[in-house]
Structure formats: C-alpha cells, structure tokens
Design a protein that fits this description.
The protein has an 8-stranded mixed sheet with strand order 3-2-1-4-7-8-12-10, sandwiched between helices. It has a two-stranded antiparallel sheet with strand order 5-6. It is globular and about 45 Å long. It is of the alpha/beta class. The N and C termini lie far apart (about 40 Å). It has 2 domains: about 260 residues, Rossmann fold (3-Layer(aba) Sandwich); about 30 residues, no CATH class. The protein is built from 10 helices and 12 strands. It is about 35% helix and about 15% strand.
Length: about 300
C-alpha cells in the first residue's frame, strides 16, 4: 500500500555535498508532517559538517553511513525509505601544473587565446566509479527495496561529448547520462533533473540565493546554446525543484534541463513545478544518440 506522501521518508545521497546539504535543509524546512529526511554521508566528518551547516534544523535528523562505491552499504541506508534523491557526483581535483599554462597562454597572447585547466580524480572515485557504477548501484538498491520514486540530479552536457566537462573531466556527464539510461530501464518511477552551471560558481563565488530568479526548463542541452544566457542556476533553486518533484505528479517520468535568468528579472519561481514543466509541452530529454562510454564494450560481451 502506498504510504501517504506526507509520511514519506526521503533518503538524500551525497548529503554531505554543497547541493545535497541544501536538499536536506529544504526537506527539513517543510517540517516532520511533510517529510522525514534521511541523510547519507560517507564519514563522521561529513556528518559533523552537515549538522553544523544545518544548525538547529539538524536536531533529530537521521544520518546513515553509505558509500556508492560500496554497494553493500546502500541496502541498509535505503531500508524503510519511500523516495531517494540522488545528489552524488565524482569530485574533480584541479591539476595545479595546468594552471601555469593557462596563465602564461593568456599573458603571452594578450587574452586572445585561452586554455582550460586539467583535472584528475582520486583512485576509485572517478566518474565511471561514482557517476555510473555508483549511481547504478543506488538505482538497483532502490529497486530491490521497492522505492516509490528516485529524483536524480545529473547535469547538462550529456549530449555534448566535446564539452569541457567531458573532455577535461573524464567524460563525467557522459557517465552520468549512461546511469540515467539505466534508471529509465529499471522500472522505478523517476524524475531526472539536469541543472546548468551551479551557482555560486568559482572563482568569483558571488552569492546566488534561491527564490530570486525566473527558472527555465528545456531538453537536450538546448539551453546551453541559448543567447539569453540561462544555462546557470543557483544550487538553492535546484534543491527546491528536487523537493517539489516529490509532490508534483507531472514530474514523474520526466527528464529535463534546468536553468535560470538573472536575479531580479522575469517571474520568480515560487514552487509551481507543474506550471514550470508545462513550458516543455510534454517533451522530455531524448536518450538517442551515439554510444556512451563503455556501451560498445558491454554490447560485445
């Protein structure tokens, strides 16, 4: 029997990260009569940091330990849960040596030529490990536990193999996209959100509060080429949309991109996800296209 929505326990994976902690806070702010959030973190240090960031809201918060690269740890984390919001992602480390080339190229070409820095990932924490295998493990564990809905936070760029996030970060978004296809095939009710560039964004890290901008939705990375410059979005607004996905039936079975306008322009998003999604006229992101990393090898096995 379906548990009444306001009694749902919602597991947030990646709760120790910047966006994950916001999602946990958004759930807590709704009150215990709305949701009972469960935060999954990888270490006691992450739990302590999360509780510090949440302040008084953290009182009574259930925290569980889990690592998406250790599938056995996920079963315990998902027991008794009705929904999962997946906010896990591989964490790139910048190659400091590459910064020298970036700076020198800009200086000697008077800014006419620009290079991008390079990144690396800790062993066992690559995009393939975390964004594909780790997300597949979460999806499979959720299915085994009879989870009612997965909200998967991914990223724009899945249709663009030549995008910086893929060419300089081990195809991170392409691995995410392959995990999305696994979710579609799993049979678990889902919503997939592809935020654009997350704000605040380094190096400026200018404040980007939520609830101050008009939000836009699209499909197939079209917003990345939109001349209006709407391919970035505050983390706060991403967190709000994720929580709204749990209460809005129109979000089920949908995969969409999410961006925003400039602060103070347009009609500020006030939680009407159904109205926001109506702009898509029923469309969702397409998963046709060239083979993603590892798919050809798998097909040959």
């Amino acid at each position: 029997m379906r548990v009444p929505l306001h009694h749902w326990k919602v597991l947030v994976t990646g709760a120790g990260g910047k966006t994950g902690s916001i999602v946990v806070r958004k759930l807590l702010e709704r009150g215990k009569d709305a949701f009972l959030p469960v935060a999954m973190v990888r270490s006691k240090e992450s739990e302590e940091s999360l509780r510090t960031n949440l302040g008084a809201l953290a009182e009574g918060l259930e925290v569980v330990m889990g690592d998406v690269t250790q599938p056995d740890s996920l079963k315990t984390a998902m027991q008794g849960v009705q929904a999962v919001i997946v906010v896990t992602s591989a964490m790139p480390q910048i190659d400091k040596l590459s910064l020298t080339g970036v700076i020198l190229t800009k200086l000697f070409t008077f800014g006419m030529v620009s290079l991008k820095p390079s990144f690396w990932f800790d062993e066992g924490k690559t995009p393939q490990d975390v964004d594909f295998k780790g997300q597949v493990a979460q999806i499979d564990a959720a299915k085994a536990e009879g989870i009612k809905q997965i909200v998967l936070v991914s990223s724009m760029g899945g249709t663009k193999p030549d995008h910086f996030l893929n060419t300089n970060m081990d195809n991170i978004v392409l691995w995410k996209r392959r995990a999305e296809k696994h979710l579609l095939a799993s049979g678990v009710p889902y919503t997939i959100v592809h935020p654009g560039g997350l704000l605040p964004h380094p190096p400026s890290n200018e404040p980007a509060p939520g609830g101050k901008r008009q939000l836009y939705v699209g499909v197939n990375d079209a917003m990345m080429d939109d001349e209006r410059g709407i391919n970035q979005v505050p983390r706060e607004d991403v967190g709000e949309v994720c929580v709204n996905c749990l209460t809005e039936p129109a979000a089920l079975g949908r995969s969409f991109d999410l961006g925003s306008g400039k602060e103070g322009e347009g009609v500020v998003y006030a939680g009407d996800l159904k109205g926001l999604l109506a702009a898509l006229e029923g469309k969702s992101c397409s998963y046709d296209g060239p083979a993603l990393p590892g798919e050809e090898e798998q097909a040959q096995q």
